[in-house]
Amino acid sequence: xxxxxxxxxxxxxxxxxxxxxxxxxxxxxxxxxxxxxxxxxxxxxxxxxxxxxxxxxxxxxxxxxxxxxxxxxxxxxxxxxxxxxxxxxxxxxxxxxxxxxxxxxxxxxxxxxxxxxxxxxxxxxxxxxxxxxxxxxxxxxxxxxxxxxxxxxxxxxxxxxxxxxxxxxxxxxxxxxxxxxxxxxxxxxxxxxxxxxxxxxxxxxxxxxxxxxxxxxxxxxxxxxxxxxxxxxxxxxxxxxxxxxxxxxxxxxxxxxxxxxxxxxxxxxxxxxxxxxxxxxxxxxxxxxxxxxxxxxxxxxxxxxxxxxxxxxxxxxxxxxxxxxxxxxxxxxx
Length: 334
What we know:
The protein is of the alpha+beta class. It has helices at residues 5-9, 17-28, 65-78, 123-140, 172-189, 234-243, 251-265, 270-297, 302-305, 309-319, 324-331, and strands spanning 33-37, 43-48, 53-58, 98-100, 103-109, 114-115, 198-201, 210-213, 216-223, 230-233. Strand 2 and strand 3 (53-58) form a beta hairpin.
């Protein structure tokens, strides 16, 4: 378990609905109906009032307070940009966070929309996702924070440290493929990370963190959950988003479809384009390794933890059918 780190091995903090309602009223002066939301390591509750929806968030106590502040400051930074992200609600005293014995408490606006994972997929939706990912990266450009360099195992640049988790992947063939992808990452991608552009990025643009407009599934209308933000090569953020947009029946076409749309909004360097397919595969590997390990540790929450496992498994198998020459040629012609 040590390879996961303390944050991914800590259970969410205990917080009853009654206690949450009391905290919301005492610190923010807001009351309403509470609906518990799923979360990997924090407590998130939808606070519903007649005029506005909010998300009351209690951070896992294993998360350093400066990391929570990092997330809050990023949202404040993005208030100056035209992006559909949550807004930070101040307390009655004007603060953006409240320190509690069970973790840092925050209140954000609730974004309405249809979660992407509930919508039909299409190339047009993938292009919209790519453009939104690029816009968000541009919005975060120039943002800095002392906690931006914190270590998070979901960060693709940490893939090399996942090797102890691979035995948790139950299927032998899939486990062997994961080992092969990790070997390739160590040999051909990790040595080139220093040649890439680095900045703070969202780092978790999966379909459960993305909203689409009601009745318009090809339009991305919201981005949630900034809990995995980190300072890393910016192309890693594009790779993370792309890893959930790969069509197993058309892996090369869907990879290029995403990359071209992203490139049209935020032009990639030649080196970034070259490592992009390998980073996409590395993210899929990361999802397989971490979710397999955490699901075994927390079987009661396994359904939530494994929600992205099938897409990553199918995508990784499909990408592995492509030759390095096919991938390199495609990335040269974005």
